[in-house]
Design goal:
9% strand; five-stranded parallel sheet; single chain; O-fucosyltransferase family protein; glycosyltransferase activity; globular; alpha/beta; FucosylTrfase_pln; 39% helix
Length: 484
């Protein structure tokens, strides 16, 4: 009859069981802090699916800039990770042993923006040499443009399979609850203003000769760091906003002086002297250290990834998320908050705001406030800000969400992971977003932007591209520094 006969295996087996090839194992080498690890792990799962390989649970790099000895199992719930993806990709904890010894994987690197065909050409043949292949320097090595099924797998991994361990979830939720007990709403501010970050940016922040000498001394640590023009960097919008500038932006947008603000940051350059102008604008400033005891934070305080995970939870659950930069943490949280319901996510239009801050003393507050509101259009986390396919996938996961339409679609039913919080329903119902399992992939030709991540390193170094196959310690440390 010409009809296709369906085998018993096809009737009863999962997708992972039917496509995973035996003796084909994929490993990834990671570095950096939690935020970037999540992206790498997500892409590793998709890469394993593309290659029909078994994924070995990633081992986090303990030698990176951040000097964090945390394992995957100490940050993420590994049992949930494996079981929740069991129908998509086979995942194991360790490589199998052969003759009492572990297999030695074949190490290689793929270029950035590598798509399905790229993996088939560059990686697939290597499994004939070794049963295990390790992809090194696995940062943004997966194309932003993939088939819709792979994009949706990205969402299942990133937003549902990656769940923090119970101690992190419990402490993170405690911090969220304490912020909520202070008032009906709160703002979370991710503030990148550490000395290394400022030295790296090449910007000048008004600290006189003292600042210039201190930041120049830090810059000497990196031989590959380009000397930049501070004024040009600011005009181009490449300078993180100062704490005072963030405060002025928020007040101009209409946030009142009594707004509760949770600040997620490292050691702020200048300490209290730098933060005091922000406190003058918003006295109710808090951090995990101010709302939790040393004893409560003790299990996490020696590990940068676990402390970052706590901040991530509070920022994710906040009513409004604000950042002073457009780094990876901002992009990842913007995508996450877009996926789970479009809670406000304010990122500064730094290029436009830079001119306003310079001219602020020559205009009235009403004029300044009005201009801030105009320039921030498109930077407030509204549902229709980003056209489908624009930006990195983790920032704008449009293959997994769409505006509510009249056709039959399936609403989000999977549990939200990372923490315990659930997205709040929009009171008007106008911005309800839903999973559409029948949604077609966006028109790839419509996206004229360069595919893939332009890393913070490349962005701050005047868009100088880092050689994909460079292994210099300077480049590695610089990328680690800017990874959150």
């Amino acid at each position: 009859t010409g009809s296709k006969i369906i085998s018993d295996r096809n009737l009863w087996s999962t997708k992972a069981q039917s496509i995973t090839r035996p003796n084909r194992y994929l490993l990834i080498a990671t570095s950096g802090v939690y935020v970037i690890e999540g992206i790498k792990i997500t892409d590793a799962v998709v890469a394993a699916r593309i290659l029909n390989a078994t994924l070995v649970v990633p081992k986090l790099d303990k030698k990176s800039f951040w000097k964090d000895a945390s394992t995957f199992q100490e940050i993420f719930d590994v049992d949930w990770f494996i079981s929740s993806l069991s129908k998509d990709v086979k995942i194991i904890r360790e490589l199998p042993h052969k003759g009492g010894k572990k297999w030695s994987p074949y190490s290689t690197r793929v270029p950035r923006k590598c798509n399905e065909r790229c993996y088939h050409i560059r990686v697939l043949p290597l499994f004939s040499k070794r049963r295990a292949v390790q992809l090194s320097k696995f940062d943004y090595r997966l194309s932003n443009k993939l088939d819709t099924d792979f994009q949706k797998l990205r969402c299942r991994v990133n937003y549902h399979a990656l769940k923090f361990t119970d101690p992190i979830v419990k402490m993170g939720q405690t911090l969220v609850n304490r912020m909520r007990n202070m008032g009906k709403h709160f703002v979370a501010l991710h503030l990148r203003f550490e000395p290394d970050m400022l030295a790296f940016s090449g910007c000048y922040y008004g600290g006189g000769e003292k600042e210039i000498k201190e930041l120049n001394k830090i810059r000497k640590r990196w031989k590959t760091l380009h000397i930049s023009d501070p004024e040009k960097e600011r005009r181009q919008g490449r300078c993180p906003l100062t704490p005072e500038e963030v405060g002025l932006m928020l007040r101009a947008l209409g946030y009142e002086k009594d707004t509760n603000i949770y600040v997620a940051s490292g050691d702020v350059y200048g300490g209290n002297e730098t933060l005091n102008p922000l406190r003058a604008l918003f006295p109710n400033i808090y951090s995990k250290e101010s709302i939790a005891t040393e004893q409560e934070l003790e299990p996490f305080s020696s590990f940068s990834s676990r402390m970052a995970a706590l901040d991530f939870m509070v920022c994710d659950e906040s009513d409004v998320f604000v950042t002073n930069n457009n780094g990876n943490m901002a992009k990842i949280l913007a995508g996450r908050r877009r996926y789970f319901g479009h809670k406000p996510t304010i990122r500064p239009n730094a290029k436009k705001l830079a001119h306003l801050f310079i001219d602020r003393k020559n205009m009235t507050w009403e004029e300044f406030s009005s201009q801030v509101r105009v320039h921030q259009i498109g930077f407030m986390g509204e549902p229709n800000e980003a056209r489908p396919g624009r930006g990195e996938f983790h920032e704008n996961p449009t293959s997994c969400i769409c505006e509510k339409t009249n056709h039959k679609s399936k609403t989000v039913s999977l549990p939200r992971k990372m923490g315990n919080g659930l997205p709040e329903a929009d009171e008007t119902g106008n911005d309800e977003y839903i999973i559409d399992n029948n949604q077609e992939s966006y028109n790839q030709n419509e996206d004229e932007d360069e595919d893939g991540m332009v890393s913070d390193l490349q962005y701050l170094l005047n868009d100088t591209m880092v050689n994909d196959f460079s292994t210099g310690s300077d480049e590695n440390e610089l990328e680690d520094l800017l990874s959150d």
